[in-house]
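Model: You mentioned two targets. I'll fold them one after the other.
Researcher: Yes, keep them separate.
Model: Target one:
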Amino acid sequence: MKYDILQVLGMILLALGTQGAIRQVADHEDAGLLAWLPGGFAVGVTAHVLALVAGALLATWAHRAAKAAGRRG
């Protein structure tokens, strides 16, 4: 069950990072959730891409861990 929750959180982070990066590339002025972040466009896009990568890694790890736990049990 904990792996399912972590997988969902990873997918949410992946989706938010992806849509945020795409939105900010399309409209440099629209920082979305990261409007409070100082540094402008480059920092905003970097933060979105980091969220995207972290979400993908978390979802992948949780999926593999859930499969491994299922085989042992």
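Model: Target two:
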Amino acid sequence: MPSQLTASRSNALAGTVRAPGDKSMSHRSMILGGMASGVTEVEGLLEGDDVLATARAVQAFGAKVERIGEGRWRIEGAGGFKTPASVIDCGNAGTGVRLLMGAAAGYPLTATFDGDASLRRRPMKRVTGPLADMGARFDWRAAEDRLPVALTGGTLTAIDYVQTVASAQIKSAILLAGLNAQGVTSVTEPEKSRDHTERMLRAFGAEVGVEEMGQGWVVSLKGGQPLTGTFVAVPGDPSSAAFPLAAGLIVPGSAVTVEGVMLNPLRTGLFAAWRDMGADLTISNRREAGGEAVGDVTARHSALKGVVVPEDRAASMIDEYPILAATAAFAEGVTVMRGVGEMRVKESDRISLMVEGLRACGVQVEEEPEGFIVTGAPSVPGGATVHTAHDHRIAMSHLVLGLAADQPVSVDEPGMIATSFPGFVEMMNGLGGGIA
């Protein structure tokens, strides 16, 4: 991929595309397949850099991992992880490394986890803290709370962990460790975060308890449960589908359909926010795939209005705030996004980068510690080169904005787009976009 990509104002976009496989489910299918006994076959796997790093890690932990076709993979697990021969390099995969540490913590092994420069900057104690409380040991090799870190697992004891901010990654890491801990492990969340781990654990034969508690819930499982290989059909990723759909909403005259999008209610907060803004968004052909509701989503160009996004929606759309902010730039009035401090510890500080990028494109933005406010207008000047800090969602969000801005918008370091959305440029241009 070139060192820079530029999106230019496009004519009406039209067409039907298929969303890449869901990233969250792709990571989990690999990890659970490696922990299980027997064969797991996965269909629709996202073959982005992050998931491929997880596949290599699972292989290093002792599973046999084989690609048998496009998006089709076979994992033969040995009923647990073994000490790897070398460092586990997770590349840029934050989900991958945090879930792998949770899984590995339950086995009597030692493994060193590392990643690229971006992953080395991200905090890890949010996960290693509760894992250490369960009995895992961590040796920080460079700086505390940052990769690389050596984990020594085994002989874990169950914990009851209460989250102050709902995080599916933390919950999932604790549950995966709890599979091999003595006692019943529980995680209490103030709001419901995505539940792919719970659903997939059941598909692999584990019993998982879920008790409603106000706006949140308590998720629990008993240690010592074996996993058995199974078949996993991965539906389309709503986080990736968001980009062509957003382009459909903001480029005049457009109508874009994305097929096979996962419609898990804990992942569709962005669609609800867009509808609140007046988006013409329709869903057809509802069905089920991989234990998840899916459907075909169509977005048509819409006159959007600014809204206050409910803070309790954040857990269901935390990865989608960058593209929501890009669409809010074209919405008449003020869009308020608060309670999203979690954005600051993703692949980058996504709040500050979106504020910086939107301002460079002539959009009025106000930054807050836990959020930001975009004052939009039907016409966005554009004409900027945006710094992405190696963050794929920052890059794609600004490229989508550039398709409807008055002047072209460029992004630096676009190679990272391949971590979550290989084929993004080809897909957008196939719909009539102008990205080069």
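Researcher: Noted. Anything on target two?
Model: The chain has 13 helices and 26 strands.
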